[in-house]
Amino acid sequence: MAGFSLKLKTKTGQQHIVSNLDQNTTVRNLKDKISELTKIPAEVLHVVLGFPPFKPLDLTREDELLAAIGITNGDTLIVDEKQLSEEERRQKAAQKRVEEDEKLAKELAAQSEGNGGILLKQVVPSDNSCLFTSIGFVLTGKVDPEKSQDMRQIIASTVNADKQEYNEGILGRPNDEYCAWILQPESWGGAIEVSILSAYHGIEFDVVDITNAIINRFGEDKNYGIRAFLLFDGIHYDPLYLESTSGEPPQTMFPIEDNNVYMQAEQLAKEAKSSRQFTDVNRFTLRCIDCDCLLKGQVEAQQHAKRTGHVNFGEV
Q1: Where is the OTU domain (predicted)?
Q2: Exposed site from 1, 206, 219, 247, fewest CB < 10 Å?
Q3: Does 310 participate in catalysis according to the annotation?
Q4: Is 130 considered catalytic here?
């Protein structure tokens, strides 16, 4: 099989010539060339030999030579994009996020090497969306409360798509009711929401709970390569970032292997608890958004919700 070429046709009528092929060309090489010419991602290519009876080509045999899958000089290939099921699309998207996270983890590891610094708190607004604003900060490095609604939508879509996993026992209310509730700007986020956003972004979120001086690791069992830290004082979340001592930009995401920053987070939790930099959930004041009633502590809020059906509260 000396040098030869192939003809490509797409469903849209485009035609291309693939040249500079030889006996050493692999299926992987061909897929890359077809993808470059047609702009169809290599992983969703569907290719058949172009004369009846049409023969679908097995493009999964990437390391084999073209002759092994029946391609010869002058063949015409008809190229299309394979239609994926919704589950396959989710798997592809998840795999892409994993690959991007692995790349980012390597970059962060290189950035962290020899980069000393101190872990600091970035204050975000106390507007009932502090969790979402904090997560937005560790992802982008910016305090942007307007992005909170996008995260609420991600959570609602995730919960709505799996009513068996996210049942009333887990959510504390019917699935549809929860989805409507979390979309409201006055609804607070907590452990369920952190867990969902951790899985969505493929990042371990470590919540530094200064009321108990512990760190709750969301996504710990998923073996993500990256972590970010959130500070929780009982009712409010703030993001943490590393202020470099060597002039590097502030860092909000860290390789899992970076034990130094994790130890700083542990120490921060202990110091904050000892100086009582937290909110006693049994004493803070809440306002019922539905009826404007003032309530003291978590217990009164729960009793009020049970008695009236009101579930929207804001901090005073």
Answers
A1: 119-243
A2: 247
A3: yes
A4: yes
